[in-house]
Structure formats: structure tokens, C-alpha cells
């Protein structure tokens, strides 16, 4: 597969910062951040608070036979998410289902009615090609519809509603992760697994992660997203509020790598802040390419 590249010579990061109570921290300055690439400090070239970018969202709905008992839950979850996040005349989403293979059911639109109708039409059956769905959705997010106005920047997001079990993909897990990172898309996963789910207290909590949930956590961890473990649709309300708030409470950071020699090598990224008690979440790395000579 093609490597993850930085076509401008800059590495772009979108970072989320939270405190110990998981509240979003949105008042940091450039001087509060430190970036390490393969443990080497980097110089930040651009910095900003990405609070209001248009969203381009791929909603991936698992319609395989394994989630048949939870399909109605998935449909309600997808509709509730879009209803709570999509802003008229600004954000756009497409719907992709996956069982034996991924299929785009509804192309990019800001029309919630079209998206809702497409979600309600789905039926369950077949195997599960989750990796293929992530890979294809990432490719689609590489060239999303441009927003109106002079600023071409958008925020790319994949929302996966699935049990995380893959038994049919042509692409490996690593292929799917690399494709999402190349598209600069954060993956937010909503697990349909209820095993090891404690429902005592204010919200459901996963007390042991295994199987498909580990896969969902790997997708989220490597791309700077999150995984949610709801028990019923009502448990999702706060999760969707959190996702919507998070997407508008992030930092945009860009740096020019000091290492320009080792093209093709995977480079680990670590973003830190000097403020105590804060956690920074962003993608974990990228694959470099050699700079393009002038005139090429």
C-alpha cells in the first residue's frame, strides 16, 4: 500500500488535551507543547486552535451477521450521532456499510433526512470486512468535498459502529490504520459488545477489553480517536456530546521534521505538554518520504 506521506514537507497533527477529570483543555499556547519525533525534539512551525472547522465524517455501520441482535441499536446510534454533530450548510457525512465487503450507501451529504433513511434501510447478514471498510473510507476522506469560503481545511473523522470482529478483509489491520493516518482521519469507535461491561454508576464502563474491542481500541489509539462502550442507546447521548465538543476543542500543530534522510521509515510522534495533570491525544506516527526536488 502507499506510505503515509507529508506532501508539503510538514507533519500535521490534531491534538486533544484533557485534564484528570477528562474535561477538554482549550486555553494552551504554542509554548505549552513539546513535540518529539523518534525522541528528537522538533520545532513547531504552525499552531492554532481548531475550534470550528467543517467536518467530513465517514459513518461505518457494521451490518454483518454477528451484530444482527444489535442492528437496531447501531441504527439508532448512528442517527443520534449525526443528528447531534452535523451542522447545516457546514458539515457533511457519508454512510458506508460493511459485511462481506464495504459499500457506500449514501455519498457525502449534509442532508440528515437522506442519511437517516439510508441507515434505516439496512439489514444484517454476511461476514465482517472491517479493515477493508476503514481502508476504503480513509481513501474517500483523502479528497472530501471542499467547504465554501477561502479556507480549504476540514476535519476528517471516521465513526465505526461495530463489534470489532473481522473475518473477511483483504487488508490487514496495519493497512487500515496506515490508511486512516494518511488521510489524517481520527477514528471514533462505538462498540456493540456488552461482554465485561459494568453498568453500575453514572455510565457503562468496560472492565476488561478483549477480542474485537482490542481492535477498536487500536484503531482509536493510533489515530487520536476514542472508543465508547454504551449499553443502550440512551448511554450514547453524552458520548456524542463529547465527540462533538472534542472535534471543536482541538489544537492544530505542524512541524517540519529535522530528519530528512531516512525516507520510508516509520517515525514515532510524541506530543507532550508541560502543564501538570494534562493528557495529550493525537496520532502516534507517520511514514516519511524523500523531499521532491525542485522542478519535479
Q: Would you mind describing this structure in some detail?
A:
This protein has helices spanning 71-85, 112-120, 130-142, 173-182, 212-223, 236-247; strands at 11-18, 33-37, 40-42, 44-50, 55-62, 92-98, 102-109, 155-162, 185-191, 197-198, 205-206, 227-228, 250-255, 266-273, 279-281, 285-287. The chain has 296 residues and is of the alpha/beta class. It folds into two domains: 11-51 and 252-287, no CATH class; 55-247, Rossmann fold, CATH 3.40.50.410. The strands form four sheets. The protein has a six-stranded mixed sheet with strand order 7-6-5-8-9-12, sandwiched between helices. Strand 10 (197-198) and strand 11 form a beta hairpin. It is globular. The chain starts with 10 loop residues before the first strand and ends in a 9-residue tail after the last strand.
Instruction: Tell me the name of the CATH homologous superfamily of the largest domain.
Output: von Willebrand factor, type A domain
Q: In one word, what is the shape?
A: globular
Radius of gyration: 19 Å
What strand order characterises the main sheet?
Answer: 7-6-5-8-9-12
Cα separation of the termini: 23 Å
Q: Can you tell me the number of structural domains?
A: 2
Number of helices: 6
Mean pLDDT: 89
Give the helix/strand class.
Answer: alpha/beta
CATH class of the largest domain: Alpha Beta
CATH topology of the largest domain: Rossmann fold
CATH architectural arrangement of the largest domain:
3-Layer(aba) Sandwich
Write down the secondary-structure element order: EEEEEHEEHHEHEEEHEHEEEE
Fraction of helical residues? 10-25%
